[in-house]
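Folding Task

Wanted — backbone structure
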Amino acid sequence: MTLKRALLSTWSMAFLLVLAFAACKNESPQQDPGKTTPPTPKKTYPVPAFNGDSAYVYVAKQVAFGSRVPGSAAHKACKEWLVSKFEGFEWNVIQQDFTANVYTGEKLPSTNIIGQYNPNAKKRIVLAAHWDSRHVADSPLSEDREEEPILGADDGGSGVGILLEVARQLQSNPIEDADLGVDIVLFDAEDYGESGGSENTWCLGSQYWSRNLHTSNYKPKFGILLDMVGSQMPRFTKDRVSMTFAPQVMNKVWKLAQAMGYGNLFV
């Protein structure tokens, strides 16, 4: 399977969940058993055609900056590009700056980037990924270069590429439900954790965001986080944490995947 094919399957799930939630508002109310009035048919929403080339270009652009390690020139340049992309899609953009206190003792300038579609809508959905890349190549497959930072085409780049394509498609194909908004949250400093160390050294951007939500009283209906979704042979399983806290969302995603012919990927 190619990277474009992997991006296609994951993008389709993310976009369909947005549309599925919009459709919930249009479900017919329960009918009185004594009445014979036919139920109002559910409203359907057309799904825009996925542009694999577009998502692929977004991934390639991130990689072209180099390793997006917090504090580096490549990291700063990529941040400016991501902000400009959301602005070009006419999304509202929030830059959530913070200092990442990493396990090495360094204090690294970091930024969560939040793109808001229909920012005044009360009903909201979160789609998220991380945009930084790991500072060391500590995979068992990279023992000869383990001290070098990675380019993060899959780990970081793939999720961001898909979500930028979602943003582009929402600009071109607006959701008809004016009460529904989408927040794309790109977390920073997620991959600067210590291998074999405390779990708290990882995911510093999402930790910061969870303590400092970008909007007061923010309560999205659900969220989907994409991470490492662009491998050549992807296989997505239902993780334990998500099944504990949001089983209905997980089951809906997997049901949609099977209906679309991706049951071999979403297992």
About this structure: The chain has one domain: 3-20+43-234. The CA atoms of residues 72 and 108 lie 9 Å apart. The longest helix spans residues 3-24. The two ends are 16 Å apart (CA to CA).
